[in-house]
Amino acid sequence: MERRTFLAALAAARPAHWTIGRMRRQPAFAPSPDAPVVNLADYGADTTGASVVNGPFQAALKALGSAGGTLVVPPGRYLVDAEASLDLPSGLVLACAPGALLVAAPSASANTAILRVRNRTGVRIVGGHLVGEREGHKGTTGEWGMGVDIRGSDQVEVVGTTVERCWGDGFYVGVAPG
Questions:
Q1: Predicted pLDDT of residue 24
Q2: Residues 6+ apart with CB under 8 A from 100
């Protein structure tokens, strides 16, 4: 679908939601009302930006289990190893509170992402401010330093999330690699 056609259809479809995936009109993803809710603060995440939060983040996701649920990210500055990325599973609502700042740690890698959604169904990213590592990038090649990297996924919704200073795309949406 051409960009102009997509944007015109999006404007005409305000009561419904467009979700990233196969670029078709479909109901927005909504978790089960019984889905668990966990708070990243309960897993020891550093809110000052002094140390990487990938470990606590993955521990919080593991606590949600394979059925998914909501991961709440409270206000704070969170340093992310964007080479490893924060890999979001199917069935997840990532609910970032106002003041939640996810910052990519400087890297020499040619391919990074703060948040990665690959081959997933039903992911919702709400809020948050993502800051790339454009000024601190240690490499000299590549153009794949993403804020949010979505590939091969369906029913992915990004609401009220801002991204800045990535040395690649802030938001990348594409087919699954390989």
A1: 47
A2: 73, 74, 75, 76, 78, 127, 128, 129
Confidence category of residue 31, pLDDT binned at 50, 70, 90: low
**Cβ 165 vs Cβ 134: under 8 Å:** yes
Distance CA 142, CA 112 (A): 10
CB atoms within 10 A of CB 162: 12
Instruction: Say whether pLDDT at 51 is over 70.
Output: yes
Phi-psi region of 84 (alpha: psi -120 to 50; beta: other; left: phi over 0): alpha
Give residue 23's region: left, alpha or beta (phi > 0; psi -120 to 50): left
**DSSP string over 12-41:** HTTTS-B-BSSS-B-PPP---TT--EEEGG
**CB within 8 A of 11, min separation 6: which ones?**
none
User: Residue 133's closest CA among 69, 79, 57?
Assistant: 79
Q: Is residue 68 a contact partner of residue 35, using CB atoms and an 8 Å limit?
A: yes
Q: Which amino acid is at 144?
A: W
- Token code pair at residue 121: 């169904």
SS3 64: helix
**Residue whose tokens read 């029913």:** 155
pTM greater than the 0.90 cutoff: no
